[in-house]
Design brief:
Structural class: alpha/beta
Family: Belongs to the ABC transporter superfamily.
Order of helices and strands: EEEHEEEHHHEHEHEEHH
Number of helices: 8
InterPro entries: AAA+_ATPase, ABC_SmlMolc_Importer, ABC_transporter-like_ATP-bd, ABC_transporter-like_CS, P-loop_NTPase, Thiamine_ABC_ThiQ
Number of domains: 2
Domain ABC transporter: 6-234
Strand order of the largest sheet: 6-7-8-3-9-10
Protein name: Thiamine ABC transporter ATP-binding protein
GO molecular function: ATP binding
Shape: globular
CATH architecture of the largest domain: 3-Layer(aba) Sandwich
Helix content: 25-40%
Bound molecules: adenosine-5'-triphosphate
CATH topology of the largest domain: Rossmann fold
Distance between the termini: 42 Å
Number of strands: 10
Strand content: 15-25%
Length: 239
């Protein structure tokens, strides 16, 4: 059996009195949703995978390699944060180029890949604009273009749909689904909306109080009536 793209084994993270514990295996090429109430540990899970949060114990294996001691830049991961981390004073093209070189020293082929990535996310012609002149959905797509030029096999998206209206959410889900098929990447995204899971996820990890309560196929998850936190998430109860 091929190894999982993402494997967390006996991972714990301790914050003062709080203890989070993660065990999971995400198959290569999968699209997984990460859901759960506020404070459940979703962002911490991403930070552990990406290398921004060092586990207190346990191991993180990505594409079969142990990530102990590896900085975020050395991991096969791109992460798109909720606020998309664009630099207001840099053009859209330069914001994307940062994904290739932090000093913006790009050769011709790399410049072309920036233009191609912007075109792929529907932002051809936006290269010289500044982030402040774009809508929330457009800024998200710039962040996606920056992830594309990095060509990392694992893509983590922290609430990629949060700032989008319903039509834009559907468009973004379609784009992510196409990009996953094209790049064969493994994708995890955090969401608070069952509709995003219906559109994009094959697998769902549901977190509660610092642990992965459920890890199962999206179809099984979406038909659940319990436990209560999941029923609430799916809109089956009002508690
Ligand atoms: N650096 C930190 N120091 C102390 N506690 C932290 C730190 N980072 C996270 N926590 C705590 O760990 C728990 C999980 O936080 P996390 O941000 O991972 O949750 P989340 O599920 O992403 O929440 P939300 O949906 O609100 O973004 C929370 O109780 C949070 O207060």
């Amino acid at each position: 059996m091929p190894d999982a793209a993402i494997r967390l084994t006996d991972v714990t993270v301790r914050f003062d009195e709080k203890r989070l514990a993660f065990d999971c295996a995400i198959p290569a090429g999968a699209a997984g949703a990460v859901a759960g109430p506020s404070g459940a540990g979703k962002s911490t899970l991403f930070n552990v995978i990406a290398g921004f949060q060092k586990p207190t114990s346990g191991s993180v294996t990505l594409l079969g390699e142990d990530m102990a001691g590896r900085d975020p830049a050395e991991r096969p991961v791109s992460i798109i944060f909720q606020d998309n981390n664009l630099f207001a004073h840099l053009t859209i093209a330069d914001n994307v180029a940062l994904g290739i070189h932090p000093g913006l020293k790009l050769d011709v082929a790399q410049r072309q890949s920036v233009f191609a990535a912007l075109s792929r996310v529907g932002l051809g012609g936006y290269e010289r604009r500044l982030p402040g002149s774009l809508s929330g959905g457009e800024r998200q797509r710039v962040a996606l273009a920056r992830a594309l030029v990095r060509r990392r096999p694992i893509l983590l998206l922290d609430e990629p749909f949060a700032a989008l209206d319903p039509a834009m959410r559907a468009d973004m889900a379609r784009l992510l689904s196409e990009l996953r098929a094209e790049t064969k990447s493994t994708m995890l995204f955090i969401t608070h909306q069952p509709d995003d899971i219906r559109r994009l996820a094959e697998q769902v990890m549901f977190l509660e109080a610092g642990v992965i309560l459920l890890d199962e196929p999206a179809r099984d998850f979406l038909s659940r009536r319990e436990p209560p936190a999941v029923a609430k998430f799916l809109g089956h109860t009002t508690i």
